[in-house]
Design a protein that fits this description.
single chain, 60 residues, mainly alpha, 3 helices, elongated
Length: 60
Amino acid sequence: MLTSMDKMWASFIAIGLMIAASVLISFARSKTTGVVRVLLSLVAFLMFIPILLYMIVSMF
């Protein structure tokens, strides 16, 4: 079982990853084109897997 501190850190990591994914997708859409844009968008999308896991961990 996780302590309250562990849950807090898990939520902070999820928030940080969400911010990073948002910045990455914003950068990809405004400054890049073609294959680079698709790759950056894919990386940002794949970041949502650990974000979801950290969010679930921080809730229970």
